[in-house]
Amino acid sequence: MNNSATTQSKIKYLYNNYSIIFIFVIMFILLSIFVPYFFTWRNMLGLALSVVTIGIIANTMMFALGSGDFDLSVSSTVAFSGITAAVVINATGSVILGIVSGILAGGFVGLINGYSIAKLGLNALITTLATQMIFRGMAFILSNGRAVGISKAGFFKLGNSMIFGIPTPIWILIISFIIFGILLNNTVFGKNTLAIGGNTKAAELAGINVNITKIIIFTAQGFMAGFAGVILASRMTSGQPNAAQGLELDVISACVLGGVSLNGGIATISGVIVGVLIMGMISNALNLLNVATFYQYVVRGAVLLIAIYLDILKQRNQ
Amino acid sequence: MEHYLEFKSITKTFPGVRALDKVSFTVKSSSIHGLVGENGAGKSTLLHTLSGALIPNEGKIIINGKAMKFSSTKDALDAGIAVIYQELNLVPEMTVAENLMIGNFPNHSGLVDHKKLRKQAEKQIKRLMEEFNPDTKVKNLSIAQKQMIEIGKALMQDAQIIAFDEPTSSLSDREIKHLFTIIEQLKAEGRAIIYVSHRMEEIFKICDTCTVFRDGKHIETFTDMEKVSHDLLVKKMVGRELNDVYGYESRPAGEVIFSVKNLQGPGVNKPISLKLKAGEVIGIFGLVGAGRTELFKLIYGLEELEKGEIEVQGEKLAIKNPHYSIKNKICLLPEDRKEEGIIGIRSVSENINVSSRRHTLKFNFFLDKDAERKIADKFINELAIKTPSREQLTGNLSGGNQQKVILSRWLSEDIDIFLMDEPTRGIDVGAKYEIYKIMYQLAASGKGIIFISSDLPEVMGVADRIIVMRTGEIVGSLSREAATEEKILSMALPVN
């Protein structure tokens, strides 16, 4: 009796927490059957490559949302760090220095966000909206408003080489999912993040250092956005000041699709991975079907609405 | 008197819990019907089915002979039912008048008729014998006044059935008196009143009939309160005899393990000094606003110290935040469990391990999930936390069980000094008794406890020593033997 009750609750738990994975699998099968060329190795790699930027940033966005905050600045961070990397490489001739300074530039944006939100008590939405504008502007200033071509071919390896027949950025994405999955599930930092999102006051009273945790979350977010920006610059062989516009909403959409609660406190890495893949899959399939970009916006928006509605239905069931 | 409202075989189940089990009883009009039972006995769930917030799996609600089917709270409102919850549903930024009339503003094709709005609101305020301005924003009112507005809202809808869920838990004596006058008046107007409370003396004071719940079941309905004794009611509630509610156990006190000297800060006006010995339970009594919670906040590092020293085991501490306090073996059980204690959307296990997991880490970094599960199960067993599993969301537990989860959080840590702010507020008799037991056990094992309570008999029944606070300072300290109600009250009351 007791045993069957726990199995039953386990099944229910699985359903409640992983329903998006079932949806993903069904979508994947349907697209494979009905969309020509979808289920080919070439297209799978293309699909994965197309979600690298969103995916890498979704890792840390998961933490930001999980702690109950937003980060809208990631799109500008991507552009800013890409430009920084390009400028530094051209100035010093050192690829390593360029990569490191690009990533550090991202971390710097994140640190400003984290400090303003945690220590100064500013609203996260407004703060990151402000830094979004500031660093988009910085990207334009640094580049004089033009794409910065990179002279060192060695830099392009980061985004365009292959390891075991799979593009390097995809490996980076996979490794980042593993690292942040472990951080979320198996470390105090991950649990504290969700506790803060669940009830900030209670988390503080339970001895969690809320401010430091938040600063770490946003700084990590900056670093990852910076990293994604450097990879993107490498793939495009240049730093683009208007790169990744609107990216923050794609990242947040992917997280929400993956069941991350906008109120904070609930997040799973499996959900986020699937959310990222669904976003990529939809664009990919629409491209294969030759649907014009304009319509793709409509479809993606509609998918997001449906996902949120499903989420609410699930919560009502609980 | 007629049977106005009838619950017929109401059953409501949640995953793993049968919250209501074939509950049947009737409520008459022109009467006040008390509902008593321990936390988790099913009173709140019953009110939720009445208000349409929950839909019962089985059974019927019959009003005036007509079987009702509520699929939303709106249906229940339309049927003349108003439930006034502990957490009030008012819009803080709107005025009293607007809050009263929300949902049916007087208007001319969409434009609000402010004059009429104000007039109707004024009438309602007068009826409630209150004296506030209808243009005051609700956020500026006291809890008692907000409650009156909730009642006013119910009367605006001309609700014939009004249910109160623990209405007095945060009111002063004077406010309670006022509330009772209003409730009596509602009864005289022929309405059916349902009154849920943990306070036995209130049930005896105003209820005409009283229904006892236990474990989701209807146990008994007493129709003649004259023939019911306090002890009988409590016995029915907990299903066993409770001789001494507090079950005080004396124990030897040891060395001083904790002391504060000349502490001063926000809400604590005059320097406060006190000493706590190992094995000692100190009760702090005082009226609302006496600075008791503020004192705890200072000690725990939630507010900045202006002056003073805090010592644990003879060692001076520079307390700056809760994190630091916990490392130095001080913990706090906050007054507002829901807002400051539990993380409702996370599991029981996570709530228990939230702090102590730092002791079980592998390689100082990775969580030891096995160890955490074991710790959760251990405390669920030891403290008899009623939950279907350790994975249950803590927000779904009853108040008493939530408090036990928070206690487990600190029992699994390495804590010597327990600060407990109203540890039994809103908790039923049976669970209170269990919490006292845990407090005595903690003290007997050499820990020190300081607790705040507004319940004078509780302070006198549980504490070894009683400290009385008034307007931000300590005004007296009494041993258990020397304490009398008169002495304590005379110290606690403001001097005019």
TrEMBL record, chain A:
Localization of this protein: Cell membrane
Membrane-traversing stretches: 20-39, 46-66, 72-89, 96-118, 124-142, 163-184, 215-233, 254-282, 294-313
Pfam (any one): BPD_transp_2
UniProtKB keywords: Cell membrane, Membrane, Transmembrane, Transmembrane helix
GO cellular component: plasma membrane
CDD domains recorded: TM_PBP1_transp_AraH_like
Gene Ontology MF terms: transmembrane transporter activity
Topology of the protein relative to the lipid bilayer: Multi-pass membrane protein
Predominant cellular place of this UniProt entry's protein: membrane
InterPro entries in alphabetical order: ABC_transp_permease (IPR001851)
Superkingdom of source: Bacteria
Descriptive protein name: L-arabinose ABC transporter membrane protein
UniProt source species: Halanaerobium salsuginis
Automatic annotation (TrEMBL), chain B:
Transmembrane regions: none
Main location per the UniProt record: membrane
Protein's UniProt keywords contain Hydrolase: no
Gene3D superfamilies, sorted: P-loop containing nucleotide triphosphate hydrolases
SMART domains on file: AAA
Domain ABC transporter, first and last residues per copy: 5-240, 240-496
Annotated protein name in UniProt: L-arabinose ABC transporter ATP-binding protein
One family name in Pfam for this protein: ABC_tran
Any one GO cellular component localisation term in the record: plasma membrane
Alphabetic keyword roster: ATP-binding, Cell inner membrane, Cell membrane, Membrane, Nucleotide-binding, Repeat, Sugar transport, Translocase, Transport
Location(s) in or outside the cell: Cell membrane
Alphabetical list of InterPro entries matching this protein: AAA+_ATPase, ABC_carbohydrate_import_ATPase, ABC_transporter-like_ATP-bd, ABC_transporter-like_CS, P-loop_NTPase
Molecular function via GO: ATP binding; ATP hydrolysis activity
Topology in the lipid bilayer: Peripheral membrane protein
